[in-house]
Write a structure and sequence with these properties.
The complex is a heterodimer. By secondary structure, chain A is of the alpha/beta class. In chain A, 34% of the residues lie in helices and 28% in strands. In chain A, α3 packs parallel to α5. Chain A is elongated and about 75 Å long. The model of chain A has no long low-confidence stretch (mean pLDDT 88). By secondary structure, chain B is mainly alpha-helical. In chain B, α9 packs across α10. The longest helix of chain B has 32 residues. Chain B starts with 6 loop residues before the first helix and ends in a 6-residue tail after the last helix. Classes of the chains: A alpha/beta, B mainly alpha. Chain A: This is ABC transporter ATP-binding protein.
């Protein structure tokens, strides 16, 4: 299957000698949401900027919908919408005119019915005649999304869509993305909020030092790298962990009323059955058990540390 | 899908720039008209009363082409330079760089709008001058042709200044330090023939002199330099500016930095 975006051995080295991207290859499928994760300066924005035409690569190719971004750039760019990281809007321009303008730039004739639909879906219709400088930060970001959608792109890039945005607004942004997914738009988002990738993305790509370390379905990544925590609620509080269980990775929490057990889902044996058996053998009554999976943040840290170890080894 | 020139893209930029002009229509048109009236009062009535005529043309009428050129040059440069500098300043320049518009579309949109505004204002000045002086235009089509070419040439120059500028100070600097002296020394208010021979030779190094001369020829049939040379001067200027703009977009200098 060919993807809607095919990135092949892409590299970027700046004049100063800084290698922003080295030999990145990735195929993005139509209709999926892929999150590019990585710390600041990892190369996420460089990758997006190359695909969108803001930065010229030093090596490799990118095809969008089969169109090469260098030789067939007009056709490639018509398929793409970009929501930049920084909020950049003309302060005195009306919201609706700003969206119409972007549509025109992409070579499309006027379509006010479609623009109304976009503005309504982003809860901006009531603000259509407001100057962009009058809008709140969240609204401005939605205007940027509306502009990026003005020409019905097949692919939408969201560069750090929720950077510096409060929790409520972040949730709101996720809903917008979910709606776009239902409309069949392929979405590539960069983020360093791992929660965001976990919440929205079908696949996660991890970038660090300009290299794509891995790309995996989000759930698989969580399974593979995920540590789980088992919390065992006890009937009677324990003053300390019984000596017979001291060699287990156990800790007492909630003032002795619960036991915490960390285990690795990748391990052949999780040791849960044995632990529960041993607890019963020592006359410790279990009231309830619950598990919690570590979030992508922990997964990510594990991954980055592992690769750094490999590099130094 | 039209894979050639992106006409809706050009129109979007042109329209967007013209809307800014119409949002401030009063100050856009009123201030040049007011300053022109002041020029007529000072140069036409006060000084012109003593000069009488230049090569058979009443002084008040003689300065009309120069006044129009002065305004066209100022307006073309400031409109085009501000037009492209503002998106760089506000960060919206990214839109032009990621959308399917190339250097031709961006240049046509911005320069077309700046030239159109400059021409509109010049025509307002011409209309105003009819109230002050007795004016007959000998070659109206040539007059419009020169007006058009000069507007385009200096809008291209302004566009380059806007691409180059990194601050509002730089944006103001070139028009102040370069354009104004060139216009005043380019024979806006006098004929180069009125200068001593040495200064006449120096004045002829000034490209603006050729534009004003050609423009004045279209009005009165008299010129400091042959009309063909004036046309060539504006043609060369347009070609050089287009070359520079193409280079800027190809390399991304001050655009993708």
């Amino acid at each position: 299957m060919t993807g809607i975006i095919e990135i092949d051995h892409l590299s970027k080295q700046y004049g100063s000698g800084t290698k922003a991207l080295s030999d990145v290859s990735l195929t993005i499928n139509e209709g999926e949401i892929i999150a590019l994760l990585g710390p600041n300066g990892a190369g996420k924005t460089t990758l997006i900027s190359i695909i969108c035409g803001l930065v010229v690569p030093t090596g490799g190719t990118v095809r969008v919908g089969g169109h090469d971004i260098r030789t067939d750039w007009r056709a490639a760019r018509r398929m793409i919408g970009l929501v930049p990281q920084e909020i950049a809007l003309e302060p005195f321009e009306k919201v609706i005119n700003s969206v119409r303008f972007t549509r025109g730039l992409y070579g499309e004739g006027p379509d006010d019915a479609y623009i109304e639909q976009v503005l309504r879906s982003l809860a901006l219709w009531d603000k259509r005649d407001a100057a962009t400088k009058e809008l709140s930060g969240g609204m401005k970001r939605r205007v940027l999304i509306a502009k990026a959608l003005a020409h019905r792109p097949k692919v939408l890039f969201l560069d750090e869509p929720t950077a510096g945005v409060d929790v409520a607004l972040r949730r709101e942004m996720w809903q917008v993305v979910e709606q776009l997914r239902r409309d069949g738009v392929t979405i590539i988002l960069t983020t360093h909020y791992l929660e965001e990738a976990e919440e929205m993305a079908d696949r996660v790509g991890v970038i660090n030092h300009g290299q794509l370390l891995l790309v995996k379905p989000t759930a698989e990544l969580m399974d593979e790298f995920g540590k789980k925590t088992l919390t065992i609620e006890l009937d009677e509080p324990l003053p300390e962990i019984p000596a017979a269980l001291a060699d287990r990775d156990l800790s007492l929490t909630e003032g002795g009323k619960a036991l915490r057990y960390d285990y690795d889902t990748r391990a052949e044996r999780t040791g849960i059955a044995r632990l529960l058996g041993d607890l019963a053998a020592h006359g410790i009554t279990v009231r309830d058990v619950s598990t919690r999976q570590s979030n992508l943040e922990e997964v990510f840290m594990t991954l980055v540390t592992e690769t750094q170890d490999e590099v130094t080894a | 899908m039209n894979m050639g020139v992106n006409w809706p893209g050009i129109w979007a930029i042109f329209h967007h720039e013209m809307m800014r002009f119409f949002r401030t229509i009063m100050q856009s048109l009123l201030s040049p008209v007011l300053s022109t009236m002041l020029y007529f009062v000072v140069f036409g009535a006060a000084i012109g009363g003593r000069i009488q005529s230049v090569e058979g043309v009443a002084y008040g009428a003689f300065i009309v082409p120069g006044l129009m050129m002065l305004t066209v040059l100022q307006q073309a440069v400031s409109n085009a330079s501000f037009g492209i500098y503002f998106p760089k300043f506000s960060g919206t320049i990214y839109e032009y760089l990621v959308s399917p518009v190339g250097w031709i579309e961006v240049t046509l949109g911005f320069v077309g709008a700046a030239a159109a505004k400059a021409m509109l204002i010049a025509m307002m000045i011409l209309l105003t001058s009819f109230f002050f002086v007795d004016l007959h235009i000998l070659h109206p089509f040539w007059m419009l042709g020169f007006l058009f070419l000069t507007s385009v040439g200096f809008s291209l120059l302004g566009f380059i200044i806007g691409l180059w500028a990194k601050s509002f100070e730089q944006l103001q600097l070139v028009p102040m330090m370069v354009i104004m002296p060139l216009v005043f020394l380019g024979g806006a208010f006098y004929s180069a023939n009125m200068l001593p021979p040495f200064w006449e030779a120096v004045a002829k190094l000034n490209p603006v002199l050729y534009l004003i001369s050609g423009f004045r020829w279209a009005f009165f049939g008299m010129a400091d330099v042959p009309v063909g040379v004036s046309l060539l001067a504006v043609g060369v200027m347009i070609a050089i500016c287009l070359g520079i703009i193409r280079w800027i977009f190809a390399t991304g200098w001050r655009l993708r930095e």
